């Protein structure tokens, strides 16, 4: 346990240590201030704008910004479908894979990668060609992550500007997010992964003969390049079906550490960027403090649940920390629990263990983190703007308590902002619970579960939770590659993504038009420790009230039955 806590402490220190300068760099990028990479990327940027016919200096209101965002993602959605269907005629296909079929798989995959979900209803090494992996999936890893970053930056501008309807230019933010931030970071981490043994080639699959004389087909491919952006962009998914549990994707304890750093790096850095935008670093510290408080609680629960283990196994003299079924022994309990807490706290979904094999509490926490809106740091941009919905709820509740109109950063939070914030919180919850209810009461939904009882319910609820939350991790056990699940989860991903973005963009536009009001004696400080505590409580209470019945019927009941010696 001591070594695991040291690992966690080092993770936090390294994460914050890298995030502070990166946050400052991102502030310079989106404020068009000079950076060290300008000589490299400014000429490329100008060329892209000439091709697109974009005027870098022309900003738009929130409606135009949002329409541009939606059109861009719709075109990406269609492109990913076409690349999958036509992959049999395209190059870099040494295994001669045919086009992805049936169509519902291509639809689900396109919805998944466009929405930053990367839920995979297929086996990567047995379905996708190298060309499809790179041009459809890896490209969308960049673009979907940059989309979330664009929304966060637009919202920050809306919060910090006044008396204007302009919140930026989507095309400019997209280009700068990809070129200045995601691309250079991906190159650095891809090289680190290659040095550690992650594959990066275009070789044909290798046929090997085992000691027993059995032929084994070993997949190859450009793995490291996709691995870097899947983690930095909090995309998730995997080149191989086993994801980050596969030794070709995550071969060493050091790569495991690098991967959890990648997942949280940009979301944490964005809070330091926010502090610089508002010219008050403590505002960013307060939100980051709430996020990390929740993260420590969640990590502790996962670790404790897995360390305690199942009493049915403990009676044979085997401690919970020694039971690694469904987990990688080379990472151990600490590396597994940390990765699980990080990947479901962010909208990532890469996994190095199978949640289906965890204890009920170990499986409950990842599900709860996604249900909360993935605000336990969250994804690239998505964690920030999802947490801002909770921030507005918190200041509204405080305003009711003291009898004042709620304010945030000197601007009044009025009925329009509250309606949009509530929509951003209710839409995902409604889709998760409705989809889970349909799955659990129809033959098509029930046909996919592997286990009966509460564990089977958890498998279905987790699938819709992961899809709507744009996480993409799988609980395991559920056969999701069916017409029902591919279509239902595909639409759940799209609604979960854009059903939150649109209300938050509306808030950005509304707040940008407001003027600031002077701070008075009754103004509640949103950078105090009290605000951090209240924000954490609001997040937990809303999550508990919304999802407690589903959690009670699933992992909580399963845990109580496990203590009585009943398993599923």
Description:
A hairpin with a 2-residue loop joins β3 (407-408) and β4. α6 (130-160) runs parallel beside α18 (483-513). The protein has helices spanning 2-30, 38-52, 62-85, 103-114, 124-127, 130-160, 170-196, 223-232, 253-277, 281-308, 311-314, 332-345, 360-371, 382-402, 415-440, 443-446, 453-468, 483-513, 529-563, and strands at residues 206-209, 215-218, 407-408, 411-412. The protein is mostly helical. The radius of gyration is 23 Å and the shape is globular. The chain is 65% helix and 2% strand. The chain contains 19 helices and 4 strands. It has a two-stranded antiparallel ribbon with strand order 1-2. A two-stranded antiparallel ribbon has the order 3-4.
Jot down its keywords.
mainly alpha; single chain; globular; 568 residues; two-stranded antiparallel ribbon; 4 strands; two-stranded antiparallel sheet
Mean pLDDT: 91
Distance between the termini: 29 Å
* Rg, Cα atoms, Å: 23 Å
What's the total count of β strands? 4
Parts with pLDDT < 50 across at least 5 consecutive residues: none
In terms of DSSP E residues, the strand content is under 5%
Enumerate the strands of the largest sheet in spatial order, edge to edge or round the barrel.
1-2
List the secondary-structure elements in sequence, H or E: HHHHHHHEEHHHHHHHEEHHHHH
Structure summarized in a few sentences:
The chain has helices at 2-30, 38-52, 62-85, 103-114, 124-127, 130-160, 170-196, 223-232, 253-277, 281-308, 311-314, 332-345, 360-371, 382-402, 415-440, 443-446, 453-468, 483-513, 529-563, and strands spanning 206-209, 215-218, 407-408, 411-412.
